[in-house]
Write a structure and sequence with these properties.
By secondary structure, the protein is mainly alpha-helical. Helix content is 55%, strand content 11%. β2 and β3 form a beta hairpin. The protein is globular, with a radius of gyration of 15 Å.
């Protein structure tokens, strides 16, 4: 299971739409490692000039790797994180996460990161199992 959904939040979802604050709170509580990585890269984006920041540290265990994969593979979770932090996320190799200012999406650095070439250049023998 990706998220630990409280009975209250599940009941709210059954009655209608859930607001982003409640959803993102559930993500933060359910996927703490993924939250920490995304929070860090978003903070780095803001403090480093606001165009691009990335995180390249492999997760300490398969459990943390799974959290990151679940967070970034889900359109709903990824979109909620992007709306919460106000920037676009990009993802490579089950650990490399980047944040881009929205006005940088489609630019050269974005294209380099999300391109097949960028993916291939980010490969290494120790990452091939991810």
């Amino acid at each position: 299971m990706s998220l630990n959904v409280s009975d209250d939040l599940l009941a709210r979802a059954e009655r209608g739409e859930v607001d982003d604050a409640a959803f993102v709170g559930c993500v933060r509580e359910s996927l703490p490692y993924a939250w920490q990585v995304v929070s860090t890269v978003m903070t780095d984006l803001r403090t480093g000039g606001g165009a691009f920041a990335d995180h390249e540290v492999p997760p300490p265990s398969e459990a943390e790797r799974g959290q990151l994969l679940r967070a970034l593979a889900s359109d709903a979770i990824r979109g909620g994180l992007e709306r919460h932090f106000g920037a676009k996320l990009a993802f490579q190799n089950c650990h490399r996460v980047a944040a881009f200012a929205y006005d940088q999406v489609g630019g050269d650095r974005w294209q380099q990161f999300v391109s097949p070439r960028g993916q291939l250049l980010n490969q290494s023998p120790e990452l091939r199992n991810c």
